[in-house]
Design goal:
Length: 330
């Protein structure tokens, strides 16, 4: 039922959602948001980037405001009643049902649609219709569900926006996470007295300013350290769990996890980060196999021959720079 209502809402709001919103929409995803950020910083007059993080976003959505937003475009009382029931359904805690007065249940297909709809009214429309016309220079909002960055030409515009953003969010029961919200000097026109501009964290990547082989400005990226550590920890746990399984089953499980990692993080410029993960898996799997060996160690040549028969999935760039360029939503 939730899937059906989510499809109805998507069909209604898809024509309303702005280009800056790329999460929870048909044919748009995190790679579109990353590609757009890459093109905006590389090709527009950007000197400052605001990283913003919403505190407990999914648990803070105000039900009253959310239903009012839905009613802007949905008049069917049956759909409205269903949404109202889902919002009030509550969660099980310590064996007891706790009713929800705010927030949207996570995990269901309706959750992403309602969250995206909420920020469409709270942030996207406000930024495009009220904020941008009052700025002196260019500005770009790039949002993937509750994760967003705002690029500015001038610092004064960025600081003015930072001053009014908390007030705007507070009106709709949202708050910024102070420790994860910062203004960064970043972009083709950013200058820090000869020092390299700072880095930007967005959608699991650390973005930095660099130059290509021709000496032209470009945005480089690598997997964010915390995300890489998490992936390593997950693979280490997987290897421990399957250490006594047949070898072909071990390789199948490892490669399935590696392919999933490469599918998301395999963007142009990020090969080294993926290679770090691959090398860890290669070494740790060898260590696991040695621990099973009666002699205590497997000759490296024998391990190499094993990998010829049961190869580990090597890192590969899935989305090169030129492909990212075509995915940008401008």
């Amino acid at each position: 039922m939730q899937r059906s209502v989510a499809d109805v809402l998507n069909a209604i709001y898809e024509q309303d959602f702005l280009p800056c919103s790329m999460g929870g929409r048909p044919r748009l995803g995190a790679h579109h948001a990353l590609s757009t950020f890459n093109e905006v910083v590389s090709g527009r007059k950007v000197s400052w980037v605001l990283e913003a993080d919403l505190k407990n976003f999914f648990g803070s959505l105000d039900h009253g405001w959310l239903l009012r937003f839905v009613e802007h475009r949905v008049g069917d009382p049956r759909i409205l009643n269903l949404i109202r029931r889902w919002l009030k359904a509550g969660v099980m805690e310590a064996g007891e049902l706790q009713e929800c007065e705010e927030g949207t249940p996570q995990g269901g297909p309706i959750s992403v649609v309602l969250s995206n709809l909420y920020l469409h009214y709270v942030l996207d429309l406000w930024f495009e219709c009220m904020v941008k016309p009052r700025l002196k220079g260019e500005a770009w909002l790039i949002r993937y569900i509750d994760d967003f960055v705002v690029c500015f030409q001038y610092r004064s515009d960025a600081e003015r926006f930072m001053n009014v953003l908390p007030q705007r969010l507070e009106k709709f029961a949202l708050k910024l996470e102070p420790d994860k919200t910062r203004l960064v000097r970043f972009g083709r026109f950013a200058s820090r007295g000869g020092r390299r501009p700072e880095t930007v964290y967005f959608l699991g990547f650390t973005h930095y300013c660099t130059r290509n082989l021709k000496g032209n400005f470009m945005v480089g990226r690598r997997t964010e350290k915390s995300r890489l550590r998490r992936s390593i920890a997950e693979l280490k746990e997987l290897l421990r769990r399957i250490r006594h399984d047949p070898l072909h089953e071990q390789v199948t499980a490892i490669n399935r996890r590696l392919r999933g990692h490469y599918a998301y993080y395999g963007l142009g410029g990020n090969f080294r980060s993926m290679e770090k993960l691959y090398r860890f898996v290669d070494r740790y799997w060898y260590k696991m196999l040695c621990s099973r060996c009666r002699k205590g160690k497997i000759p490296w040549e024998k391990y190499h021959n094993l990998k010829q028969l049961l190869p580990l999935q090597k890192p590969r760039i899935m989305l090169p720079f030129m492909a990212m360029k075509s995915m940008a939503v401008l």
